Every structure is written in C-alpha cells, then in structure tokens.
Amino acid sequence: MNSQLIPTEELSSLDIEAMYLLLSKHFQGVERDVFNADLNHKNWVILIKDSKTNQLKGFSTLLFYNTDFTGEDISIVYSGDTIMDPSAWSSSTLSRTWIDSVNKLRTEYSQGKLYWLLICGGYRTYRFLPIFWQEFYPRYDVATPPDIANFMEYLAQERFGKNYNPISGVVSFSHPHILREGLRGVPQERLTDPHIEFFDRMNPGHLNGDELVCLTEISETNLTPAGKRMWFASVSSSPAIKNSTLRIPA
Predict the structure, then answer these.
(1) What confidence tens digit (pLDDT) does each residue in 175-231 have?
(2) Of 42, 76, 93, 175, which shows the fewest CB atoms inside 10 Å?
(3) pTM over 0.85
(4) Phi, psi at residue 98, to the nearest 5°?
C-alpha cells in the first residue's frame, strides 16, 4: 500500500471522485453536496492506494486547528470521513500513516498540547483508542474527569452545535452516514470485549449513524506499546507529505 498526506485543496478531481465512491460503497446516506461541504471544512487528507493498481483503498480527512480553553493554547486534530475497504483491513497502513501524519503536523503546526477529537459511529473505530492510547475518554473502567468532560463538551459544542447532546455525549447528524448491511452492528462475540461493550452501551443509536464523541491527548507518553511501535516506525515507511500553509476552514 502507498500512503500520502496532502492538503485538501491539492486533491485531484479523480481522487475526490474515488473518495466519494468508496465512502458511498460502504455507507448509506452519503449525499454528494454534504460530502463536498465536509471535505471543504477539512485541511488535510490521508490517501491509501494499492501499490500495484493505484486504486484508492482508503482515506481519512483531517481538520487540524488551534484553539484555546481556559486561557491555554491547545491544538486539535479532528477526524472526519474515514474508510478502509474491507479488502485492506489486514493492512496496518492507515493506522501507521495516521499516527505518523499527525506527528508530522504536530511538529509543524502545534501551538500547545495536541488532542485528537474523534467521533465513533462503529466499534472498529472506537477500538483504535485502547489499542494505541493509554488514556482516552469516555471509557468503561474510569469515569471521565470533570475537567476533561468540560473540555470535551466545549469542543463538541464548538464543532457540532445543536447536533451534539451533552448529556449522552453523542452527535446525531441530520444526514448521518450509516454503515451498510454486513458492516454495521456489533457481532455478539465481540461484546465480550469490555471496550466494545461500553461503546455499544454508550452509543445505542450507532446503527442509525449516531457518533460517540471521544478525546485523547496525542503525545509519546500516552502511547501504548502498540502505539509506540507505530510512532517510532522507520522514516522509510512514512507517508509523503507536502509542505503547506495551514488553512483553517471557516
């Protein structure tokens, strides 16, 4: 697999079309104007392509921005549309590229601590958190500390407005993306994993496209052993990254 991190404004029309088709293949409710508007509000995208055919196998859109909370300068990376074709699920390219890309953006643009704002509409996405990060919220075994809860609510209200329910911690979009049959839902045997059972319980509307708001700090000290292996991967396996002035969409 080949991977690349590029500014969204430098995407080719062919790449954008391939991204839309890949997302539509695996999600119901993907409307072209909503997809375009969402992409326009991101400033980076990771592309994963087959090294032999150059066919798009996955992508993740990112919004990297700086904000402040209680007088502290803080940087945020917010994950937007993300999908990997099931044929590429055995590859670690997306997770490795995501961590490496965000580390590069952190070095280049961060103005303080960097946090990952993630909304999870499926258990596979939520499961990335305990695999790679030691401390993240919400989680089954530790209550979210009040200061973190306030910070998450601040970010979610700022980003999602009326679509965010501060009581449940869930975002319900007017045009949700719903995983297609065979991809949505949680297999019964996976509910033995306490992280997955927690996600299923906290976001009961995930079958209808509801998204659980999650947060973790991106730092070396917060990595699990698996996260450290990705973080410290050799430079030769890193994605190409184009230099760009950080564009913050309105």
Answers:
(1) 888 877 777 788 899 999 999 999 999 999 999 999 999 999 999 999 999 988 888
(2) 175
(3) yes
(4) -60, -50
